[in-house]
Each structure stands twice: as C-alpha cells, then as structure tokens.
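INFO  loader      accepted 1 record
INFO  loader      residues=181
INFO  predictor   begin
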Amino acid sequence: MSIYGLTKGTKFEQLSNMMAMGEATGTMMYYAMARLAKEQGMDDAAAAFLESANQEAVHAGFYATLNGKYPQDFWELVRGCMAAEYSGENTIKGFADKFRAAGMNEAADEMEIFAKQEGHHGEVLKKLLEKYKPELLNVEGKTIYVCGCCGYEYIGDLNNEPEDYICPLCGQPKKVFRLKE
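INFO  predictor   done
INFO  writer      dumping tokens
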C-alpha cells in the first residue's frame, strides 16, 4: 500500500507540509554543523551530524510523499531535474570563478567540485531515463519553459498551470520561467 497523497486534502495536509519543510531545513542545518565540526577537528560530532542529516532527508521525503507534493509518475520531474543538473554545472562553475576572482580560493575549489557533481547528477538522471522512459528524452518540437533560477525544464504549456505554480526544484514562482529558445 502506498502512502502517496494520504494527507492531501485532509486536516493533516498543512501539518505534513510543515513537517516536510522543517525536516528539509533540519537536513541543511545538520550538514552545516557536520562541516563545521569537521573543520574544528571533531570527527565524531561530524559523523553524528551527518547521520542526523541523512535521516532528516528521509523524513522530509516521507512527509512530501504523504502530501503528494511531487507526481506519483515522477519521470517528467526527473527529466526536468536532469536539465537543471546540467545547467547547474555551468552556473556553479560561474559562481566559483567569481569567488576565485574575489580571493576566496578555498570556497571556489569546492564549488568547482560541486559543479562537476551537478553534471554527474545530470548524467545519472539521463541514464535512468534511457532505461525507464527513453521517450522523454526526445523533446523535439515540444514547448519547453526553463526556470530562470535553477534551470528546471517544464515541458508543455505552462499557462495551463495555476498562477500559484512553483518550480518543483527551487520553489520559484511561475513568472521566473522563460520559453526555451
């Protein structure tokens, strides 16, 4: 039995959404604390914070699934995220260049690693699409809107989405999307 959408439209929807957002924020917080602990030579604390961060991420996914936040047929979402990951590689590399120009070389070094990881994420998602939904990789002749913030690609007529539509990846409003040329 799936828990997908179990709380959608119920008195528990707002609570589940609040829990998902709290857990997602907790994930970020624990990963930051793990990094800081590692920098300060507290490897045991860093490991404990990493474990907590990973668990918080699982919790966030649970509550998002309860609320049906993402489509149960998630492959279009995967295709849009693939494009964003590829885009993220160049975006983060550009940020790294700016950090380096400002003399923040250590941060720039890590950001360059992150940029490569974003591109790798795109490759992983592409391979999954090739295996499970290869037809989604053919976008020839389709209308594509791109999120101006993260590079997520929406295929179809974005005008059919409600005005409160937000990017499923970065949460930006519909108005930041632009037609892909």
